[in-house]
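Title: Comparing notes on inverse folding

I've been comparing how different people in this forum approach sequence design from structure. To keep things fair, I'm posting one structure and asking everyone to reply with a full sequence. Here's the target:
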């Protein structure tokens, strides 16, 4: 197999700028000429083995970071955006998108932000006709999407927050992290109580009382306890991280702060080193991990998708949660598989079938149009309201990775991962999926010509050329 050349000019340039070095000084430390460094930073040449070794030896750089999936994510996101009919039927060639993602990632993100703003404005005008003329009918950028992209392009791993949570967990005694959290709050003069209420967590600042819902499962109460502790004791850290992110609105900043507090709670409940070691020992058995760390299955899956610490990475997982309409409500991928930014996921994916088999784990071997093969695990996660007649919130979650990691998963033990016919074809979005014979296709692919034959009808009312 031919060795794949590594073009990582943007990351190389960012590393140099972070170190505060000129191109001349950086080239000297890497043992290359100034023109050669310039060519590598502009992706005119691939990184040489000498440069990769020098990065590791001179600067302690985790060279695996050079091949992270930022460019592939941007390409996937741009392909989906360009499938919008507003751009017409002739999108730019894939090679151009890859060149943009590699050489001008800031421009690619600006384009995605512009397209998202267009979609939001278009959808708002279509659904809120009656609001035309009102002062509050303007369409601001979505803070929710801005925050989601922040975590997405951080690989869902926030180092400073993760390490702070791990340090907290290291101080837990025999009673575990929950006992430690209650003791910390008690030292601050805050009482913790439980009440028969649908509100999961309520902190009364006047009485210094934290009330948790007695109706919620124990793992949910434990998580909410740690979340409140993060908000009260880690404010400086959270605010500093938010300053670094430079969100465009106060709403986005507020949402992100809660996201970071949630991240801290999960990292404290499942501290990085201990959790990674246990996950590897039990071969990522979700039920065993949930029992060991007092967490829910969803919390465990989400945590597995964050194990991307430089120098101590876990398996690159994707994690997604969908509702019964197929809408993605949580998404993250440290793999080459990227999810649709708008709408639902591929209907051929097993995550949708999880609603039909509550209480069971569904396994699927799947192959995307680019030829990459994955193993996917899906299950439903129902969230009862805690009383008769209370609504039940139902979701399905999926966790998966490339099939080359199958040996590290207990769920792959009896699957024939060597049989190409065992892999089901799945896609990302119908508009950018290249499959021509998909029986579940909802709309035609915009990058392909269609042939309509009045005297013939197959699975679809047209043929994809």
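Reply #1:
Here's my take.
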């Amino acid at each position: 197999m031919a060795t794949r050349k590594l073009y990582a000019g943007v990351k190389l340039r960012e590393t140099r700028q972070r170190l505060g070095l000129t191109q001349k000084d950086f080239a000297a430390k890497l043992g290359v000429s100034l023109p050669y460094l310039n060519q590598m930073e502009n992706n005119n040449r691939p990184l040489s083995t000498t440069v990769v070794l020098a990065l590791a030896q001179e600067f302690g750089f985790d060279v695996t970071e050079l091949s992270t999936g930022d460019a592939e994510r941007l390409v996937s996101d741009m392909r989906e955006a360009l499938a919008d009919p507003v751009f017409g039927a002739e999108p730019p060639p894939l090679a151009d998108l890859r060149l943009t993602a590699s050489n001008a990632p800031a421009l690619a993100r600006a384009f995605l932000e512009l397209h998202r703003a267009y979609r939001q404005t278009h959808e708002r005008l279509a659904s809120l006709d009656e609001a035309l003329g009102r002062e509050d009918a303007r369409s601001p950028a979505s803070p929710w999407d801005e925050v989601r992209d922040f975590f997405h392009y951080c690989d869902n791993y926030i180092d400073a927050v993760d390490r702070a949570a791990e340090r907290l967990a290291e101080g837990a005694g025999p009673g575990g992290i929950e006992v430690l959290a209650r003791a910390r709050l008690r030292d601050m003069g805050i009482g913790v109580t439980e009440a028969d209420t649908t509100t999961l967590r309520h902190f009364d600042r006047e009485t210094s009382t934290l009330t948790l819902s007695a109706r919620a499962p124990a793992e949910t109460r434990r998580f909410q306890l740690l979340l409140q502790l993060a908000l009260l004791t880690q404010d400086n850290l959270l605010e500093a991280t938010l300053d670094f992110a430079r969100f465009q609105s106060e709403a986005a900043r507020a949402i992100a702060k809660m996201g970071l507090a949630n991240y801290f709670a999960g990292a404290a409940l499942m501290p990085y080193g201990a959790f990674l070691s246990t996950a590897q020992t039990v071969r990522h058995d979700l039920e065993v991990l949930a029992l060991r760390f007092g967490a829910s299955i969803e919390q465990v899956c989400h945590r597995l998708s964050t194990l991307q610490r430089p120098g101590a990475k876990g398996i690159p997982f994707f994690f997604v949660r969908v509702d019964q309409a197929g809408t993605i409500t949580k998404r993250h991928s440290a793999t080459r598989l990227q999810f649709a930014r708008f709408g639902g996921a591929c209907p051929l994916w097993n995550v949708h079938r999880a609603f039909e088999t509550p209480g069971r784990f569904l396994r699927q071997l799947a192959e995307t149009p680019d030829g990459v093969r994955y193993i996917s695990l899906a299950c439903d996660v129902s969230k009862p309201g805690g009383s008769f007649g209370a609504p039940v919130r139902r979701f399905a979650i999926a966790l998966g990775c490339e099939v080359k990691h199958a040996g590290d998963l207990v769920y792959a033990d009896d699957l024939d991962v060597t049989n190409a016919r065992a892999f089901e074809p799945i896609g990302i979005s119908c508009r950018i999926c290249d499959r021509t014979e998909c029986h579940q296709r909802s709309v035609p692919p915009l990058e392909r010509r269609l042939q309509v034959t009045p005297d013939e009808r197959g699975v679809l009312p047209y043929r994809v050329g």
